[in-house]
Predict the structure.
Amino acid sequence: MTASDRYQVTIVKYGTRRTVRSDVYLNHHIYSEPDGPIGMDYFFWLIRNSEHTIVVDTGFSATGGARRRRTTLVEPAAAFDALGVDRDAGPPVVITHAHYDHIGNVELFPASPLTIAAAEYDFWTGPYADRVLLHHSVEDTELDHLRQAERQSRLRTFSDEVDLAPGVRVIRVGGHTPGQSVVTVNTAAGVVLLASDAVHYYEEYERSMPFTQVANLLDMYAGFERIRAMLGAGEIHHLVPGHDPDTLGRFTPVTGALAGLAATIGEASR
């Protein structure tokens, strides 16, 4: 690993909600344990070094969040600005999957190339995207932004995995959605896996308890096993889930405008 291959990962919590365990774990009653309250935080991620700035997901929009009664802690646009992201410069944007809370502000990056798994894009532009059990997690206007990017030749799709930059790889695992992807990032603190919604909660992964929204249950279980094997083999050193309120407390807190709402892993190369 060279200096140019090392990045700093910034985890930004922009929203939150309170719910119950039976609302987040598939068929929770089967586990024969009491229901109870649980939090759910909403994140996007930033990968940076002296040569590259890469955005991973863009959070929910004001419309998408309000429709589902989510609490906004900081507007994603304001958070990007606080982090010094030059949105007009067109930094690459990774879309781990196309749910409302991951592509809600993609229009903030009108010049950016977008990277998404082909299976994800094909599904949400295909004949089953309007089925109620699936469609409730997306916003049609936001899917239209993806179509527009495709017409503008800004949308890059891939089959299984793709190297986005030296030390940054996007890998499709499926499960939660047909093209659900994760991102591995080299840092000075070790390799980080941004699991997005392949793993919503640490407990979900540790106990193999699938999330309630799942396109392919076997693929979700296989994703848990793949991540477990990567950790066991030392291929990754830090697991960052997509919605666990415990996430920020495990990493280095930031100061300044996003204090209490962001944490980092590693130091960016200079």
The first strand starts at residue 8 and ends at 20. The mean pLDDT is 96.
